[in-house]
Fold G-protein coupled receptors family 1 profile domain-containing protein.
Amino acid sequence: MMQDTSLNMSQPMSNSHHRLPFNETVLKDFKLTSSDIDKFVQLMHQFQRKNMSTQMDECHGYCQGEIYSWLRAYNNIHGYVSLMICIFGTIANILNIMVLTRKEMAKTPINNILKWLAVADMFVMLEYIPYTSYQYIYMGPDEKDLSYTWAVCLLIHMHFTQILHTISIGLTVTLAVWRYVAIRHPNGGCANFLLAHSREAILLPFVLSPILCLPTYFVFKVRETYDVDKVQSEAMYHVYFDQDSVLYRFNFWIHSVLIKLLPCAILIVISTVLMHVLCEASRRRLKLRDYNNPAKYAIQLNLNETKSKRPPRCDRRNDRTTLLLVAVLVLFLVTEFPQGLLGLLSGVMEKCFFAHCYPPFGELMDLLALINAAVGFVLYGLMSKQFRTTFRSLFMKRHFGSTEMTRLTRVTTTCV
């Protein structure tokens, strides 16, 4: 097929101007024909298939079982489920923001943290609505959009949601630390410092999150490819990442350990402490309400005083607020810990786990994150009397009197 070109290679440089143009040289020396090009493309295709089969053999046995059949079945309806959750969550977070910005609610730092948490969650859902509508509903299960515009949209979606989700994680950790300090050291220097710098504490996650996500900007990029089965084919674009690069593995460790698992570990410790505080408060309340053995208290106090003695209203309000925050933290742990664990396993096991095990869980992880961002309104309404009162006065046009609102504001200001 190819002639010996050693003589041409040995020609002196001074005679290079006597050479034919490149295309004529190729036709004369190599005698390439269309059949040779087709044969070359077929060989390249066979080589690519051989590499893919080798990789499949290396990853044989990864992630097989009934659970993956269930995951793939759910992925077929993920678009409709996530769209309904996003619509509900967007409306719910807007209501949260409207209630938490009221004068009687905005006096406490914890309510301000919850307000900005609702803002971050609202923007996550607003961005996810067009993505899921096009990716899972408009396009069929076997359809793929390989245009440059959609590849850029996927890249923006990836970075935007990761930054906002990291902001939510930071605000949740700030919320937990704030509550821990308010309970364990209410009159200490740390509590006074946090009260004096509440705005900076809320602003910090918004500043740090884009910095922590910095490696992701360089790992993922839009790549142009062509179909090897066709000699002439249109360019295809998709989000590409080099699995063999050091930066790729470093990004997985940052994302799984620093952004996911470390906040989860902090929240587990703080949630345990808060639950211990609630149990202690419950035991104190049972002692104060021990009507089965009134003689125990009659020895020390008058019987009538014992029966009428109840925990201070501030303590009861304190317990409800703590229980609400514990519910928020536990829901966050249920959402974030599996994501961090999958990311850690992807960083340790690398190619095979990420290629075969991680993708089936992608939609399920999105679902958990969307549920976590949407149920805040339900939790606040069920567990906060002040939230319910403010919501009714704001949207139901009912005036419960300035005495009730003043009482709730005074209790919240002194207890939270």
